[in-house]
Every structure is written in structure tokens, then in C-alpha cells.
């Protein structure tokens, strides 16, 4: 299994040749986005993007708990995602779009009523309030044997391009542009609900009173945090804005789900063969030693936002579709990994075979990262010169991971959850284009020549490889060979240099300068 330049070049060229003409129009009326959007039918959608994460679930999934204790974690995650999806998409509740769950992190969109900034922003804020109250006052009491869970939220408002691509049954909604990206960036990982200035300024004054402005030192911007709010205040706000969320009804649905998905029906096991993630579900889960890989197209949000002003979104989408399809091909076909999910312009991949072989899993993950870099630098930029300012940023980590497919029927999401999944995502988010970031637990498994290409970064506490395309790695590996003993023999055919001793040969180690 390996990446091949000619194969990659042909794959991308064939995709470009068969892609067809892309159309981007403004969304001006209500629509079922799953039915409307495709690779070539795209829409500029004004809306509020909301992320709501429950970081505790990653810690719980990594625990050494066994039996009923671990099944309870899976049950809780499944039931949580089911009820949150109902709250988000219920026509009588929030009437939003559940784009997907990324592990325990929800990505939702509000775009109705069309172009009504105040109403859209209001729904984004009230959803965050409801989810905090739901976890604290409804969900946690129903799962008393688990630690108390808390939610971290982020929301932004503006226009983003909606599209949809993938392979046959695993096509996914994608949203490209600052609001879809920035809402996730302002998450804190703690029990904090945040919105951008765009959301805050669109709210009615009655809601603005519930916020405090704070400085985000990471992003060097002012964001707004939702203050604590009493049950009575929240109920009044929901009534004032026509949001009919009923906590008693939510509690009853949780209890009904616990009866439908009892602990004795939930199974989990290691994997003897490559996981078919779409065959998994609440009764069939996998807990494996795995490497998580996140590969992000660095600079793409700024790139696509720039093309909007020039009315050249079609060109940017053509670039993205080509990159994403090649990302998927590299993971699935070149290295027999699992393409878990696309998250905007980022791919999430998982490697767990050979079973329990940490060294070979780590090596395969790093080889995949190098292939992603190679495809971007050597293939994409050759066929699509307009991508010259883009880069590939990759983060990798390895450890125990829960793998499943959970949620509501017909809308189940691929789930990979655990501390190492969060670490790999965080490592990638700290990378610039052209960088691959790994911890020592991954680097230690690489051959010496490759280890030397990863340099310790004390600020990040990681090893970082820069511009590691396949040709650069191969040169380093070949150079390393000349630092080992070689054997020289002479005869009628002339002088022969080999890496193995032969009859009459003499050994010597070339000078270090020859191996550079």
C-alpha cells in the first residue's frame, strides 16, 4: 500500500474531466438542502452556524471501563444525539438543520426564515440555552451513574456556500465560508456558550441583555458569552419567540429510548478485520487501538471568501471537490484506512489495522499524511494552479477509540470518539499549511531517517514535519542507506558496490557528506 504520483494525477484529472459545470446561486426560498444540494448544484446560504460540543464524552469513551459501565457510555451518547437531533430539527421546536455530529460535537444550521437575521440569530442563541439546560436538568439526572456532562457552544452568522459530495451512500452536506468555520473556532472546550459579534448585533435588545463581552486571546477578537439564566427566564424567552420545547416531553423520550436500547442489547468488541463503519450501530460497536488523522486544507476559508467577491466561487468549489475526492481515495484505496467524515474542507480518517500493532498503525498513518501533502503539492497545484496558496495541515494521534454509527434512524452519523481523536484534531488546528504534527508516541515508531524529518516544537509540545512530500522522504531514506556499511568487490566486470557482503568484498562506511 502506497501513494503513486501517476495514479494520483490520473485520478484527479479524471475527476476534473467528469465533474461537469458547477452552479452557485443565492438561496432565495425554503428548500430541503439534502435533496437540493450536490457537487455541482450549490447555494449561497445566509444563516447561523452553531456548534455544541460535550467534551466529557471523549474522556468517557477512553476510559478502561468494561461491561455494563462501558455499555452505559455508548447508550448515553446514542440517546443524547437522538434527542438533540429532535430538538434541532423539530418543526414545532427549532426547525433547524442537523448537519452532522463530529463525535459528540453537533453542527447545526438555521436559515429559516430566509434572510431574517434577527430571527435566525435568535434561534441560534436559544438553542445553546436549551442544550445547556437540557444537559444539566434533564439528561444528567436520567444518567446518574455518569459524571455530569456540560456543553460548550459557538455560533456565527453570515453567508456560506452549501454543497454536497461523497461516494454514493455516504454523501455529506458541506458548508464553506467564514461562518461555518468561525463558529467552531470560538468553542472553548469548557461550559461556555459563545457567539460572534455578527450574531450579537443581529439579536433583539431583550436577548442582548443576557451576554457579556469578552476578549478571545487566541483569536484576538471580542466574542460574547451567554450569562447564566434561570429556568423561568429561559421559559419566558422561549415563549416570547415561539419555541415550543417541552422538558417533560424530552425526559419522556429519553426514558422511552432507554427502554428501546437497553444495556443488554448494546455490544462492543475489538476488530479482527477492517471495520465497515456503515455496518455498525448501537448494538454493534467497536473499541480499538487506532490512529486518528485529520487533514485540513489550510487557507481555504480565506480563499473561498475571496472568490465570493470576485464571483468566482465555481472555481474554488472545483478545487475543493478535486482535493476532497483525492483525500478520500488516498485514505481508502492507497492505505486501506477508514474515511470517517468530511468536516468542511477537513477530512477525518482512522487506521486500526493490523489489530493491536501500534507500530504499523502509526507508520501507516504517517505515510497517509505524507501522501496527502504530496497530492496537494505535486498533483493538485499542477492541475489547478489557482490552488497555489493552499496547503495541507495534518495532525495525528494514536490510542483507544470508540467507533460506531449512532443517532436517529436514517440520519445516523459515523462516530469516532476518544481523547486521541480530540488530540489529533487539536494538533491539526495548530498546524500551518505544509505541516504534519505528531506526538512522541507516533514518532517513536518511525524509521530513523523519517524520525529526523520531524523536529521538536517546544511551544506546541509536538514533533513537526514540514513540506514532507514523497520525493523528499525518499531522498532522506536513500541518503540513510549510505550511512550503513557498504561492500565493494572488483573483478573482470569492474567494481561492484552492494549493501550485502559477497565473496572477496571489503566493507566500509561512506563519509557523512556522501550520505547527505
What does this structure look like?
The chain contains 18 helices and 21 strands. With 516 residues, the protein is an alpha+beta fold. Strands 1, 2, 3, 4, 5, 6, 7, 8 and 9 form a nine-stranded mixed β-sheet that branches. Strands 10, 11, 12, 13, 14, 15, 16, 17 and 18 form a nine-stranded mixed β-sheet that branches. It has a three-stranded antiparallel β-sheet with strand order 20-19-21, with no helix packed on it. The longest helix is centred in the first third of the chain and has 26 residues, at 117-142. Residues 512-516 have low confidence and may be disordered.
Key traits:
516 residues; alpha+beta; 9-stranded mixed sheet; 21 strands; 27% strand; globular; disordered C terminus
In short:
With 516 residues, the chain is an alpha+beta fold.
Mean pLDDT: 92
Let me know the number of strands. 21
Radius of gyration: 25 Å
Share of residues in strands: 25-35%
Helix content: 40-55%
* CA distance, first residue to last residue: 28 Å
- The residue ranges in which pLDDT falls below 50 over 5 or more consecutive positions are 512-516
- List the total number of helices: 18
Helix/strand-derived class? alpha+beta
Oligomer: single chain
Overall shape: globular
Give a short account of the largest sheet.
9 strands, mixed
Write the layout of secondary structure elements.
Blueprint: H1 5-18, E1 23-26, H2 33-36, E2 41-53, H3 56-62, H4 67-89, E3 97-102, E4 105-110, H5 117-142, E5 152-165, E6 172-176, H6 178-185, E7 193-195, H7 197-202, H8 205-208, E8 211-216, E9 221-226, H9 231-240, H10 247-260, E10 268-269, E11 285-298, H11 300-309, H12 313-334, E12 338-343, E13 346-351, H13 358-383, E14 391-406, E15 413-417, H14 419-429, E16 435-438, H15 440-443, H16 448-451, E17 454-457, E18 462-466, H17 470-481, E19 486-491, E20 494-498, E21 506-508, H18 512-515
Parallel strand pairs: 1-2, 5-7, 10-11, 14-16
Antiparallel strand pairs: 2-4, 2-5, 3-4, 5-6, 7-9, 8-9, 11-13, 11-14, 12-13, 14-15, 16-18, 17-18, 19-20, 19-21
Amino acid at each position: 500500500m502506497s501513494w503513486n504520483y501517476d495514479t494520483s494525477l490520473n485520478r484527479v484529472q479524471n475527476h476534473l474531466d467528469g465533474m461537469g459545470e458547477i452552479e452557485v446561486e443565492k438561496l432565495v426560498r425554503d428548500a430541503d438542502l439534502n435533496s437540493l444540494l450536490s457537487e455541482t448544484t450549490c447555494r449561497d446560504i445566509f444563516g447561523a452556524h452553531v456548534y455544541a460540543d460535550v467534551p466529557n464524552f471523549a474522556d468517557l469513551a477512553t476510559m478502561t471501563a468494561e461491561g455494563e459501565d462501558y455499555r452505559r457510555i455508548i447508550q448515553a451518547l446514542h440517546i443524547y444525539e437522538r434527542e438533540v437531533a429532535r430538538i434541532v430539527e423539530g418543526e414545532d421546536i427549532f426547525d433547524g438543520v442537523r448537519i452532522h455530529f463530529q463525535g459528540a460535537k453537533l453542527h447545526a444550521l438555521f436559515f429559516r426564515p430566509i434572510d431574517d437575521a434577527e430571527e435566525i440569530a435568535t434561534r441560534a442563541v436559544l438553542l445553546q440555552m436549551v442544550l445547556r439546560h437540557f444537559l444539566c436538568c434533564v439528561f444528567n439526572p436520567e444518567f446518574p451513574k455518569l459524571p455530569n456532562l456540560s456543553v460548550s457552544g459557538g455560533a456565527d452568522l453570515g453567508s456560506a456556500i452549501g454543497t454536497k459530495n461523497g461516494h454514493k451512500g455516504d454523501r455529506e452536506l458541506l458548508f464553506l465560508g467564514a461562518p461555518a468555520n468561525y463558529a467552531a473556532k470560538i468553542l472553548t472546550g469548557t461550559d461556555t456558550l459563545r457567539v460572534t459579534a455578527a450574531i450579537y448585533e443581529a439579536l433583539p435588545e431583550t436577548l442582548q441583555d443576557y451576554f457579556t463581552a469578552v476578549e478571545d486571546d487566541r483569536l484576538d477578537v471580542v466574542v460574547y458569552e451567554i450569562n447564566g439564566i434561570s429556568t423561568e427566564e429561559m421559559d419566558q424567552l422561549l415563549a416570547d419567540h415561539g419555541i415550543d420545547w417541552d422538558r417533560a416531553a424530552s425526559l419522556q423520550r429519553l426514558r422511552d429510548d432507554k427502554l428501546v436500547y437497553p444495556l443488554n442489547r448494546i455490544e462492543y468488541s475489538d476488530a479482527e478485520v477492517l471495520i465497515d463503519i456503515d455496518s455498525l450501530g448501537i448494538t454493534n460497536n467497536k473499541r480499538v487501538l487506532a490512529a486518528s488523522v485529520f487533514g485540513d486544507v489550510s487557507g481555504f476559508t480565506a480563499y473561498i471568501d475571496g472568490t465570493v467577491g470576485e464571483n468566482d466561487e465555481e472555481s474554488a468549489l472545483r478545487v475543493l471537490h478535486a482535493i476532497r475526492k483525492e483525500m478520500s481515495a488516498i485514505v481508502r484505496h492507497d492505505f486501506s484506512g477508514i474515511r470517517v467524515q468530511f468536516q468542511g474542507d477537513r477530512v477525518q480518517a482512522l487506521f486500526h489495522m493490523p489489530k493491536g500493532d501500534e507500530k504499523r498503525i502509526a507508520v501507516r498513518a504517517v505515510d497517509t499524511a505524507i501522501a496527502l501533502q504530496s497530492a496537494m503539492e505535486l498533483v493538485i497545484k499542477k492541475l489547478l494552479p489557482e490552488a497555489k496558496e493552499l496547503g495541507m495541515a495534518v495532525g495525528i494521534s494514536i490510542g483507544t477509540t470508540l467507533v460506531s454509527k449512532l443517532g436517529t434512524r436514517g440520519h445516523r452519523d459515523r462516530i469516532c470518539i476518544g481523547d486521541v481523536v480530540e488530540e489529533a484534531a487539536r494538533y491539526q488546528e495548530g498546524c500551518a499549511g505544509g505541516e504534519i504534527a505528531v506526538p512522541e508516541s507516533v514518532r517513536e515508531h518511525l524509521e530513523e531517517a523519517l524520525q529526523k524529518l520531524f523536529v521538536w516544537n517546544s511551544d506546541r509540545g509536538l514533533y513537526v514535519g514540514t513540506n514532507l512530500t514523497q520525493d523528499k522522504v525518499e531522498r532522506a531514506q536513500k541518503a540513510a542507506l549510505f550511512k550503513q556499511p557498504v561492500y565493494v568487490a572488483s573483478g573482470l566486470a569492474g567494481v561492484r558496490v552492494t549493501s550485502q557482503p559477497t565473496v572477496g568484498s571489503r566493507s566500509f562506511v561512506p563519509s557523512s557528506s556522501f550520505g547527505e
